[in-house]
């Protein structure tokens, strides 16, 4: 099987569209990075200042900063760090929960689950208060711009590109024999049908390599273009970084279910993103087997996606919170709220770590679907 799998991988990598799609994705990411407009000079000043003042905003920090040479950056930093305090010291997660419930007008059993969820957030806030995470300097006023771009926009783009690639390669992997009109030769024997496992492994490996390579190159290029240095080690819960819920803007502290630095949060997001890609690739591979056609398999996926989006709009319009809560367990919904992963997630979750649990549950369901499809395919007639 390993020999056949390596042969299938080579066949896939010889497809010009795969290389072109990768290069196009990387080029788009480079353009996005070079045009984002982050204030690198101010970040450099803050990090140079940190070497003298330390990374936490204290009274000593202000004394040392006041004695630094006069500059526009110094005045800005003094202004941005004036009168700051440890906001998590007496922070009430129960009050945050009530604010969220009232803001989104959540009712019924979902509101009760939300209250319990925010009660479980209290120990995390206490730990953040002890660590004085809110007083970490980061990049001061530019922290929000850097953090949001990295953990949300740039990673969201990488994940989106990789998911599209997973969809297409999953479908292609299970329908390639039909496209080349060799399906009669391959699937008319028990041995021939077993090659589909090699095709699955080959398309999965190429998909995973696409994701990992694209992510490493994109973040590497970003770090070369914008050397953020110690910012990677800054707490994701610094008060310069907020969780913003939309379309109606609600700003709350960024509180994950355990204290994290930007680097740790990014790595954890990448790992969860890889599980989402495995799920997306596997689902579309099965869709290709059931439809036995690349085009019709793609139509099935698009139809499901459009239906889900339309259903979500109806649910939000009528305030059906029980249905909304259930919909948040769907892989597409999980991808859409990627910017809130590992936090309390506001109206998008009713339990801690819901996005992680949801993906694991979906992978389990995918496994069941794979078993059912295998039994179906073993007796399927070639048309």
TrEMBL record:
It comes from the Bacteria. Keywords: Membrane, Transmembrane, Transmembrane helix. The chain crosses the membrane at residues 12-33, 154-172, 200-222, 262-287, 294-315, 357-377. This is Uncharacterized protein.
